[in-house]
What we know:
Radius of gyration: 20 Å
Shape: globular
Largest sheet: 10 strands, mixed
Mean pLDDT: 96
Strand content: 25-35%
Distance between the termini: 52 Å
Number of helices: 10
GO molecular function: ATP binding; carbamoyl-phosphate synthase (glutamine-hydrolyzing) activity; glutaminase activity
Subunit structure: Composed of two chains; the small (or glutamine) chain promotes the hydrolysis of glutamine to ammonia, which is used by the large (or ammonia) chain to synthesize carbamoyl phosphate. Tetramer of heterodimers (alpha,beta)4.
Strand order of the largest sheet: 10-12-11-13-14-19-18-17-15-16
Structural class: alpha/beta
Number of strands: 19
Helix content: 10-25%
Enzyme class: ligase
Order of helices and strands: EEEHEEEEHEHEHHEEHEHEHEHEEEEEH
InterPro entries: Anth_synth/Amidotransfase, CarbamoylP_synth_ssu, CarbamoylP_synth_ssu_N, CarbP_synth_ssu_N_sf, Class_I_gatase-like, CPSase_GATase1, GATASE
Region (CPSase): 1-171
CATH topology of the largest domain: Rossmann fold
Amino acid sequence: xxxxxxxxxxxVMIGKAFxxxxxxxxxVVFNTGMTGYQELLSDPSYAGQIVTMTYPLIGNYxxxxxxxxxxxPAINGLxxxxxxxxxxxxxxxxxxxxxxKIHEIPGLEGVDTRKLTRIIRRxxxxxxxLCSLEEDPEVIASQLSSMPEDKNVVQRVSTKSPYASPGxxxxxxxxxxxxxxxxxxxxxxxxxxxxxxPYNTTAEEIRRLNPEGVLLSNGPGDPKDVQEAIEMIKGxxxxxxxxxxxxxxQLLALAGGADTVKMKFGHRGSNHPVQHLETGKVYMxxxxxSYAVDEMSLEKTPxxxxxxxxxxxxxxxxxxxxxxxxxxxxxxxASPGPEDANEHFDDFLQMVxxxxxxxxxxxxx
Length: 365
């Protein structure tokens, strides 16, 4: 069965349908990872988006039970050059096609993904829709260009009520803005006593849990849409050590008086080089974000830039000059990707210990 992709600029691409027969629209983005499609499909940060994979063959090792980042995918669609129908891997339980069908995610294969990626790189992220050949592309393109931005993506993917992952180590409150399981795994691996709370949990509610640290998770959408979280961070900053990851990084910056901007086409992939400015060390990182902290806006804030992307110079990490708080734009838990930056979880827990001993400034990262 044929299916087409229509972009808001009028571009039409026709290919073969796979996955679910359900048709949907969303922001069309691209991911440069060669592997990790299962983690990508189950990453809540892709909520509402249609993802184009730049690597030409996707699905060759199937879907397994261990590599999910959440149990309920929020992605709106997947576009590939070729979808493997017969995966070969000892852990595989489903093919890519079967997984997408079960979770009602439409797929499109057989289109020129290199061309589509170049369109996005040239014109920026575009809205698109996967639809049947019977629909009028001009009408769809007109509808897409007037479609408002989705403001409720974090609300959709965040947990609705708190839950615990008990441990005998430091008590950490993990604020779920669309959390990947990889973050929780890294904390539990370090014996942390983790309490996961919804995105709109207040500062007072967090303080009542008596945490030794607060981790602000990744998540989808525009950080300025999550005003509840910005107010919460203002209420705990300086009182409880903070680590922000991805969306959590942007929210920490906003709470400290900085600004964020939407990037032309964002960073998505498991191969993005980031440099630590103080040591010169370069990390290969996993990334997935549309927004970035505006560097100029940091000048009048109490934050120092710690990391930058080598590809485009965008801000990848900040730390507070006097209080125990730091954040990174990339994913130290990887999932998927290299584990170069995994040490940031240890830095966070060391900062928690230092704070308990009366050392209040963030560790030099």
